[in-house]
Specification:
The protein is built from seven helices and 17 strands. With about 290 residues, it is an alpha/beta fold. It has two domains: about 180 residues, 3-Layer(bba) Sandwich (FAD/NAD(P)-binding domain); about 110 residues, FAD/NAD(P)-binding domain. The strands form four sheets. Strands 1, 2, 3, 4, 5, 6 and 17 form a seven-stranded mixed sheet that branches. Strands 8-15-9-10-11 form a five-stranded parallel sheet, with helices on one face. Helix 1 packs parallel to helix 2 and helix 1 runs parallel beside helix 7. It starts with a strand and ends with a helix. The relative contact order is 0.20. Bound molecules: flavin-adenine dinucleotide (FAD). The site of flavin-adenine dinucleotide has 35 residues, from helix 1, strand 2 and helix 7.
Length: about 290
């Protein structure tokens, strides 16, 4: 039986693994890949880039440290986590069964796609699913945002402060009648379209979109229709909220003793690499404290 199984190899899981190994815990990392969503790049028309702290570079450092520590890692998809006696059984798609005294879930959340023509080809080329990460690049530009939920409206509000013009595509009523929705409708910088996005066009990067049969020139597109948290494997543990996010306290502990969670899969959900890294560290130290007291 392992001391700790970490599920997910994104920034949260990799950081948790580094901390757990430094504490000499007998640790296994189960993940479908190493790096998670840090592999998502972003470029757009006329973007020259600038010096920033890149989460992906930090994650590379954690990966190198883990390689050096020769940690146990299996590439597999976890399908179920079951509470058993004083620990947990972790079952995988590859028909493996592992046991541990504690578990950290760091499986992230995947953005929902619309699957419209042009979307797949232009991902990362002016098309993003994360306004919180890229909104700041649209000073005096013309981005479009698709989505009728709170997340999309907040993205439009943020961009309206800096952009020349914001095109807000509302595929359904959603929360568009909320006070924020009303404020956006009254903002001269925000053009609202009550229609579905039909197509994204562009060669090297997003150049235009088609909405209600009309082509609109834009500098970039944010699809903000929601995210699917990767919490299916722990659904039976009763630690998720109505949207499927894992509810954690300020120490990344869940309501199930011995189960911790970190990063985008939690209800903290600030969707930034540096936040996930911090939570991964916290979850590992909390798991260590839990194990010391067993
Ligand atoms: C388009 C886009 C651009 C972004 N750009 C930036 C940016 O510029 N800067 C920034 O700070 N943040 C950015 N983010 C946010 C950032 O990528 C995330 O906040 C961060 O990656 C979350 O880390 P995580 O470890 O929680 O999850 P993830 O990075 O999603 O990693 C999850 C890991 O879990 C694994 N996994 C999932 N389910 C299972 C399972 N059942 N079994 C085994 N393994 C599983 C996955 O394979 C993956 O390794 C962006 C996000 C998106 C969507």
């Amino acid at each position: 039986m392992y001391d700790l199984i970490i599920i997910g190899g994104g920034p949260a899981g990799l950081t948790a693994a580094t901390y757990a190994l430094n504490k000499r815990l007998d640790t296994l990392l189960l993940s479908e890949d190493l790096g998670g969503k840090t592999a998502y790049g972003f470029d757009m028309k006329g973007y020259e880039g600038h010096e920033v702290i890149r989460g992906g570079e930090l994650v590379e450092k954690f990966k190198r440290q883990l390689e050096y520590l020769q940690f146990a890692h299996q590439t597999d998809r976890v399908t179920k986590v079951v509470a058993e006696g004083k620990g947990f059984a972790v079952l995988t798609q590859g028909n493996k069964r592992y046991e541990a005294k504690a578990v950290i879930v760091a499986t992230g959340a995947l953005p929902k796609r619309l699957d419209v023509p042009g979307e797949k080809q232009l991902i990362g080329k002016g098309l993003s699913y994360s306004a919180i990460s890229h909104a700041q690049l649209f000073i005096e530009r013309e981005p479009a945002i698709v989505g009728s939920n709170k997340r999309a409206l907040e993205a439009a509000a943020e961009m309206a402060l800096i952009a020349k013009q914001v095109h807000l595509i509302l595929p359904e009523a959603g929360e568009s009648d909320s006070p924020l929705g009303k404020k956006l409708r009254a903002n001269a910088k925000v053009k609202v379209y009550e229609a579905a996005l039909q197509e994204v066009r562009g060669d090297q990067a997003v150049g235009s979109i088609v909405v209600g049969g009309k082509e609109i020139e834009v500098d970039g597109l944010f699809i903000e229709v929601g995210l699917n948290p990767g919490s299916k494997a722990v659904a039976d543990l009763g630690i998720t909220d109505a949207s499927g996010r894992i509810v954690v306290n300020s120490k990344c502990a869940t309501s199930c003793p011995g189960v911790f969670a970190a990063g985008d899969v939690t209800d903290v959900f600030i969707e930034q690499v540096l936040v996930a890294i911090g939570e991964g560290a916290k979850a590992a130290l909390s798991a260590y404290e839990y194990l010391l007291n067993q």
